[in-house]
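The data layer described in this paper is built around a simple, fixed record for each protein. We quote a single record here, exactly as it is kept in our systems:
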Amino acid sequence: MRSAAAWLVAAALLLLTGCAPAAPEPAAGGTRIDNCGRTQTFAAPPQRVVSLNQHATEILIALGLGDRLVGTAYPDDQAPPESVAAEYAQVPLLAEEYPSFERLLAAEPDLVVGGYASAFDETEGRGRDVLADAGIPTLLLSESCTEGPAGMDTLLADIAMFGEVLGLRAGADRLAGEIRGRVEAVQRRLAGVEPVDVFVYDSGEQAAFTLGGHGVGNDALRRAGGRNIFADVPADFTEVSWEQVAERAPEAVVLVDYLGAPVAGKRAYLEGHPLAAGTPAVRDGRFSTIPLVELTEGIRFPDAVERLARDLHGR
């Protein structure tokens, strides 16, 4: 967290350039939010927020949360989008993976935000009930709890929710407009194209860990002119057999990139696999790579749509 003096200097410079961050907007009578089966009430915008998982942290920075973001954890890559990179670097990293309950308490949050349901793993002592008993409200990105398919609309609804809770409605409206505009521009460019059958390969050797039909990533692929060959599986990510991969004969493979799992090894594995190697995608060497955080609910959703559209259709 920056020093008071540094913040005052930064604020003065922003005022001079006309780019000062908007002050939190108080909600009359408090804000009541239904989120993933829990109701939370906020008398005023939280002032000390901890965000677990990189994609959730990027959303909060893009909204303009600034120095009210006092901790993050579990980064998925080392290169946040340029629009949030400088501020992301200033957020204290509480843990390379998830922090302990004690480490969370030490940050003195008045709100903890989770990107994945695993952020609030009860068996590891970070359950939402445990945090509530400590007086700390929690919010979870809706992709982790929706019963049906999630997509861009899920993301935009969560952005609006954070705008309400954090008193950053103007930032939420701006961010939602930018995301919607970029995605709609891609869809106009792709009007009339024939979708490409795609196998998304995350990991796995005995079985393939792949993208199912309920995740935000599936919606990004669809809007980019792709057809997920496992879109019929009701899960965000799921395991499938290599026999199923071969039977569905993908025309292109998207390799998922994240820390600790080099994509070069994934491609080599597919090229040497007795079943995967015979699919049109691998046989023709039609590979694309995408960061994991672009396939999850976050500000990189339009990046995913633009990247996939270029790789699949050259547009």
About this structure: DSSP finds twelve helices and 13 strands in the chain. Confidence is low (pLDDT under 50) at residues 1-27.
